[in-house]
Every structure is written in C-alpha cells, then in structure tokens.
Amino acid sequence: MRVVVQRVRHASVEVGGKVVGSIGQGMLILLGIEADDTDEDAEWLCGKLCRMRIFNDADGIMNLSLQEIEGEALVVSQFTLHASTRKGNRPSYIRAARPELAEPMYERFKMQLGTLLGRPLASGQFGAMMDVKLLNDGPMTILMDSKVRE
Fold first, then answer.
1. Can 55 be counted among the known catalytic residues?
2. Are 140 and 6 in contact (CB under 8 A)?
3. From CA 125, how far away is CA 147, in angstroms rounded?
4. Number of domains composing the chain
5. Is position 67 annotated as part of the catalytic site?
6. Can you tell me the distance from the alpha carbon of 74 to that of 3, in angstroms, rounded to the nearest whole number?
7. Is 125 within the bounds of a domain?
8. How far is CA 58 from the centre of its chain?
9. What pLDDT score does 54 carry?
C-alpha cells in the first residue's frame, strides 16, 4: 500500500463538476492499493498517518500530529501510485490491485483512519475520474509504502 501525503490548508475532490469531499487544514492522502496488500498494511499506514508530526507548533516547529491539531483528512484512491515505468514509455499498472480487491480495502482504510482520528473523513469516489484541488501547506509532501517501512 502506498500513499502520497500532502499537508494542506484545504483540499477538495470533484466528480462531474460536483464536490464529493472537502477539508480544511489537514492531510490529502492519495492511496494506492497493491494486489497483495492486507489489513495489516492499512493499520500500519493509518497509525503512522495519525501520529506523524508534520504540523507546526506555536514556535513554527513541525512537532504536532494530525490528531493533535484536530485536522481533517481527505482520502483519494489512486491506482497510478503503483505504476511501473521500467519498460517503454507507457506505464504498466499490473501491480495495482483490481477494483474488486482494491475497493473493499479502500473502504477499510477509510474506516480505520476515521476510527483512529475519532471523526469522519472526506473521500473521493472510487474508480471515478476526479478533479483534486488543494492548497499545499509548505509545500509538505511525503511518500510512504507499507512494504518499505522507513
């Protein structure tokens, strides 16, 4: 399971010109699910995301977590995070989970993250063509992979 995490001042997702999810200060989380991902991968990532200290304290030091600032989260499915560009010029997405596996895992990830945060979160629409708008705060962007726990 891979995520691209962006610290944002605000973010939203539109499908067909209609806003389906929006947040204020918090994290925009682009989530890619691989065929062999498990609930344990989701639990590890959700825990890290909630506790990761990437928000500024009163002294301007990145010392606060999403939980501590009572920030919001917007989760957007993005199978392209598992693109392989090794051969040729057209990315291969063979490692990305098929929708019948990915969608239930996406829903479990959202439920787990919401439970840890203690509040509902916003999300995109699985499998839809989405327009994602954000104001990146920093910019602050982090890549995480549950198979490479650094």
1. no
2. yes
3. 25
4. 1
5. no
6. 12
7. yes
8. 26
9. 97
Please identify which of the residues 6, 55, 79, 112 carries the catalytic annotation.
Answer: 79
Instruction: Answer whether 133's CB lies under 8 Å from 11's CB.
Output: yes
Single-letter amino acid code for the residue at 39: D
Helix boundaries (H) for 17-90: 39-51
Write the DSSP symbol of residue 79.
G
Compute mean pLDDT per 10 residues along the chain, 150 residues long, and list them. 97 97 98 95 96 96 95 95 88 90 96 94 96 95 90
CATH label of the domain that carries residue 65:
3.50.80.10
- Domain range holding 58? 2-145
| Residue 115: partners with Cβ closer than 8 Å, 6 or more residues away | none
Q: Map tokens 């918090």 to a residue.
A: 26
What's this model's pTM, rounded to 2 decimal places? 0.94
Catalytic residue among 38, 80, 115, 141: 80
In a domain, residue 133? The reply is: yes
How far apart, in whole angstroms, are the C-alpha atoms of residue 110 and residue 91?
A: 27
Question: Which one from 6, 78, 109, 112 is the annotated catalytic residue?
Answer: 78
Q: Does 81 fall in a domain? A: yes
Residue 32 falls inside a structural domain: yes
93: its two tokens: 């997405």
The token pair at 48 is 């890290």
126 catalytic? Reply is no
